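Collaboration report, partner site 2.

Our partner group contributed sequences for two proteins of shared interest, and the home lab folded both. The records are reproduced in the order in which they were received, starting with the first partner submission.
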Amino acid sequence: MLDVTKYGAKAVNLDYIKQSIPNAPILPYVLVGVDESWKAREKEILSLGENILVRSSSPFEDGAEVSFAGLFDSVLASKSIHSTLEGAVERVKDSVNDSNTNRYAAIHGITEPLTMALVFQKRHPDNASWSMVRHPHLHNVMFISRQYKEDASSSWVYEQDKGIAYPQEATEEEIKLKDISQDLERALDFYYSVESLPRYQMGYTYQMEFGVSPFSFFQFRPFRKKEEANWECSSTNISKGEKYQHFTFGITPKEGIELKTIRMIDFFSSPSLDQGLKGKKDREEVLKIVREAMGLNTEEEIYAQTLFSQLKPGVVSSAYHLHEAVEELHQRYSNESTAVLSGSLHHHAQIDILFPSSKVWIPSYVGSSNFMAHNCFRAIQHYPISLMGYLCRNKTGDKVRVFSDGINARIEYL
């Protein structure tokens, strides 16, 4: 097996699976180690074709507890988009210097310099990115997703014993895999083959990324530890009749855990608010308008102050990203047991990097959304408990008790 310190986890997994499974559907690739010159392999790399994906493969990524998912870049080198191989390599290697990447490393206690190997691979013809992962607490359940634009995705839940898939878009209609894609049955069979390999008997469930038409394997990495609760939780915080519209990851003690809630806010303005703010210069007048529009309590005053600092006279913005306020709240509550309530903010920032100390993450917008997108995937790995699609109307400083058996969850207001 390749040395992970030289070639990185992504490359090691890719090569291990290719060597372990005969005729594995993996597109041609060239591996370049951490201290090796890709220029010395340029002729071999160019033989991969006109469209070459330059992929990160750091020794630090795709670990059981630390994934760096979405933080290291993969860049397409192609004449059709005027992207040179040299430019793509530079962008991928430079991603180790990104501020979010380094903050993530510090949060997880990584103090040594981040290093980067490279995977040069022939690009798959399908623009959509597919993913599947096994539920860590319901071992018969698989999640399948397709992302074809940055904010456009479709997701399904697959019950392995029944051979039936359900869309997550607020419907209980059963779907056959072949009606989603002719390649999904083959993808599932390949997933089962890979997860049975000796390297992956570490007590974790895994995420597989792949392409279809034709089916091609891209990546395999740990998701969460397999766990089963020794008690059952009844859920009272979801709407009836919404099969697979909520998901719970992580298990609390039977008596639950008491937490203070922290409300994350990215404020999307309305025409009436924009009109109210337009031309306003007086600080107290602006803060009053913002407080009322956001429904802020005293603890959340920092949001109004941060928004005021962003406003420019006569300029109306469609969205205000209040990350400075979130970081201030994190400093204020970092030594307390907290549950982070996030809405739209997570689409614009790395929630696990902005507020890493929380014990529970409750993203209100997640249900039919693609929670296997990199930011969500990484956050679910990071927080001990994630309640996807559950409702919590609290504001910052309010108290709750959270119960979770890894399948259902309950939020009690204190």
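Second partner submission, folded after the first:
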Amino acid sequence: MKKLGRWDNNNDDEASHYKNRGKKTRDWIRIARYAIYGGFAIVAIVVLIVFIPRAGLSVEIFETGEDLNTISIKINNNNLQEIHNVTVAFDDNIEKKQIYNSIGPFSSIFVTPDKDDIDFQKIIVTADNGKLQTTKYR
């Protein structure tokens, strides 16, 4: 008795036209999945390489030396949490320090020195009641 239908027979010779006949197949779904995982890994590595060295409290000085001498200081908070009690002192002049309430995560503020402190040589920035401190020389 002959069975009808391709699912009923166990003979591989009759259903050989459904096979690849020795050709190597590619599983495109598996390849796409590994490509996506690889992309996430590359993005994670780049983020770690870029943000870990810049984490913390940093200070940048912007100075123009034209007819009108202007100085701006950018204080960056590259932490995940907000920092409080930020103080800025120029040249160990602790009596005339500038006090700022807080800086949010991954944000910055601009500070301008007073007229008396325009010729400073270093900036001392302290935050979180002395837990974070950085010094930048001109």
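Feedback sent to the partner group on the second submission included the following. The chain has two domains: 16-51, 56-137. The longest helix spans residues 28-51.
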